[in-house]
Write a structure and sequence with these properties.
Length: about 140
């Protein structure tokens, strides 16, 4: 099976797991979403008035500005879930270089269905986006 197809299937599995995981917002998610809302209101300095890295709220604000009718909570969950699911692809490619195809598929699949990896993006937390950045690096 070609690598692109394996990667696409892994991303699809990760998205399905994240979309069928239901949970409340994480404790830090309220600050991320508040910061994104401040950015949408034109107060960009809010990105640097927190102890958290500004990347996640900035991306949520960018996507939120493109879809103003969608509640910011849903945008935050969507950004984190899609980014977290996309991280399965570079994780698979990295695993393939290190341990070969079977180990890479199993490792990426465990990432896709792992409860912590699936739960935190649904909570609108920043981990999904950061996993994507880490695995892509």
């Amino acid at each position: 099976m070609p690598d692109w197809l394996v990667g696409a299937l892994l991303v699809a599995v990760a998205l399905l797991v994240r979309w069928f995981t239901s949970t409340d917002l994480g404790r830090d998610a309220t600050l991320y979403l508040w910061t994104a809302g401040q950015v949408l209101d034109g107060r960009f300095e809010a990105l640097w008035q927190s102890v958290f890295h500004p990347l996640h709220p900035a991306v949520v604000a960018m996507v939120g500005s493109a879809s103003p009718d969608v509640p910011l909570e849903r945008v935050g969950r969507w950004v984190a879930s899609v980014a977290g699911a996309l991280a399965a692809w570079p994780l698979f490619l990295l695993g393939k270089r290190v341990v070969g195809s079977p180990g890479a598929v199993w490792g990426a699949l465990l990432y896709c269905i792992g409860s912590w990896f699936a739960r935190t993006p649904v909570e609108a937390m920043s981990e999904g986006l950061y996993w994507l950045c880490i695995c892509s690096g």
